[in-house]
Write a structure and sequence with these properties.
The protein is an alpha/beta fold. The chain is 40% helix and 14% strand. It has an eleven-stranded mixed beta sheet, sandwiched between helices. The longest helix has 25 residues. The structure holds glutamine. Glutamine binds next to loops.
Length: 478
């Protein structure tokens, strides 16, 4: 009974359906684990006080469904951790920022509405880099989260709290958001599966926006099957998000059994042993019948620079709404301008302010053409190249990150932190779905640290990613 938190979602769901366990049992064990570990891990910013009531409602619903001969949703009664930038009506949501510290959500994000309809249980809201800006969760206004596999190290970010919660078995699954890697990078650092869906596959309504043309919500879980279950529950066209797309609008992708590897990107700045693990995974895939071919993405070396122009531009626009009048913190000065300056100066952390300034700069008259205009042109080129390559192969494979989790405080230089995103930002710029899953571990100071392989597929081809992901899982590269 005590190991119920270690079940996959699929297993827990089966056991609940068979009447062997209840949602209350599973939630209780997660809560006990939270009690044990959250103080140190700082994965949850808040644990909800009504978890057992929610679980009880789920158990009653299952009993009712059984009586009526109705099938229960696979996520009914499954306890989830939710990133603190996803609105749940009536609950605090802060994006780990002082500026929203006491803000209460006035409606449910569409992904939450969908999970509620499925009957999921919400354990709490999880720590993150402020407004999802970062790759380590060290930019949280409420202290860093820790990696459960080595508490000296970061869990990744910005969805680090969600990843730490699942990796430490304080939740069975979690939602994160990904603007440039924030689901995949923490998944990689914590030994989990994480999916950044196709842009538009999942509604952004009710997510606190970072970069609106890049943001997507998605799952963090222990297995590909679990990630698939969660994705299928939250996906779909939504009238509250005009960029969301119905799943049947994508052209069907015929499987080629070919995997493309952009080797020209794997030359520098990547740890040798991460590269060796990656080669091992490719070898294993070859043995299971995949052809590994070299592909060229000539514009990909520009991706990081392009991202760090477009993203701050969007950040500066999105964060303009936090003015001390409409949301959250409101500090009074001597004039209206002073109110703004005080609220924003004290409410936002250093990284948020840095990006607002960068974004304002690249959008300003005279620099717009030189930076923002060029970056959007390069983005279009990159999208065309990725799309061409994906006509020839099922997916493009790279390591998810060039290194395993760093130590807390190790990457105090923002540029060093940005380099971690080198492989992940492309999928956000091009809108393609990308999946990270474990490809073994590498030793650092006596500990084995997990690392991930990233697969990027054609728009709308999450099914293809799950299929290859399951093969890689079976091979289980050590
Ligand atoms: N690490 C990246 C950044 O700092 C990605 C963030 C994200 O995906 N939210 O912007």
């Amino acid at each position: 009974m005590s190991e119920l938190n270690k079940l996959s979602i699929t297993e827990a769901s089966k056991k609940m359906q068979a009447g062997e366990i209840t949602a209350v049992d599973v939630s209780r064990v997660c809560l006990a684990e939270i009690e044990k570990r959250n103080k140190i891990l700082n994965a949850y910013l808040e644990v909800f006080s009504d978890v057992l009531e929610q679980a009880n409602v789920a158990d009653e619903k299952r009993a009712q469904n059984k009586k009526e001969g109705k099938e229960s949703h696979a996520l009914l009664g499954i306890p989830f951790a939710i990133k603190d930038n996803i609105l749940i009506e009536g609950r605090n949501v802060s994006a780990a920022s002082k500026i929203l510290e006491n803000y209460v959500a006035s409606y449910d994000a569409t992904v939450i509405k969908k999970l509620k309809e499925a009957g999921a249980v919400f354990l709490g809201r999880t720590n993150m880099d402020e407004f999802a800006m970062g790759g380590s969760t060290e930019n949280s206004a409420f202290g860093p989260a820790k990696n459960p596999l080595d508490e000296m190290r970061v869990p990744g970010g910005s969805s680090g709290g969600s990843a730490a919660a699942v990796a430490s078995y304080m939740a069975l699954g979690a939602l994160g958001t990904d603007t440039g890697g924030s689901i995949r990078e923490p998944a990689s650092f914590c030994g989990l599966v994480g999916l950044k869906p196709t842009y538009g596959a999942v509604s952004r309504s009710g997510l606190i926006a970072m970069g609106s043309s890049l943001d997507q919500a998605g799952p963090l879980a222990h297995t590909v099957e679990d990630a698939e279950l969660i994705f299928n529950a939250i996906r779909g066209r939504d009238s509250f998000d005009s960029t969301s797309i119905s799943e049947d609008l994508y052209p069907k992708h015929a499987a080629t059994k070919k995997i493309g590897v952009p080797r020209h990107l794997l030359k520098e700045g990547i740890d040798q042993d991460v590269l060796e693990q990656f080669e091992k995974s490719l070898e294993a895939l070859k043995k299971s019948g995949y052809e590994i071919i070299d592909v060229e993405l000539p514009s990909a070396p520009l991706a990081l620079a392009v991202y760090y122009v477009i993203m701050p531009a969007e950040v500066s626009a999105n964060l303009a709404r936090f003015d001390g009048v409409r949301y959250g913190l409101s500090l009074k000065g001597d004039s209206l301008f002073d109110d703004y300056a005080k609220t924003r100066g004290e409410g936002f952390g250093a990284e948020a302010r840095r990006r607002i300034m960068l974004g304002t700069y690249v959008l300003s008259s005279g620099y717009y053409d030189a930076y923002y205009g060029k970056a959007t042109a390069a983005r279009a080129m990159l999208a065309a190249e990725v799309s061409d390559v994906l006509k020839e192969v099922d997916c493009i494979a790279t390591p998810t990150t060039p290194s395993p989790a760093a130590k807390i405080g190790e990457k105090s230089d923002p540029l060093a932190m940005y380099l971690m995103d080198i492989f992940t930002v492309t999928a956000n710029l091009t809108g393609n779905p990308a999946l990270s899953l474990p490809m073994g571990a590498v030793p650092r100071e006596g500990k084995q640290l997990p690392i991930g392989i990233q697969l990027t597929a054609a728009h709308g081809d999450e099914a293809g990613l799950f299929k290859i992901g399951k093969e890689i899982e079976k091979i289980a590269v050590q």
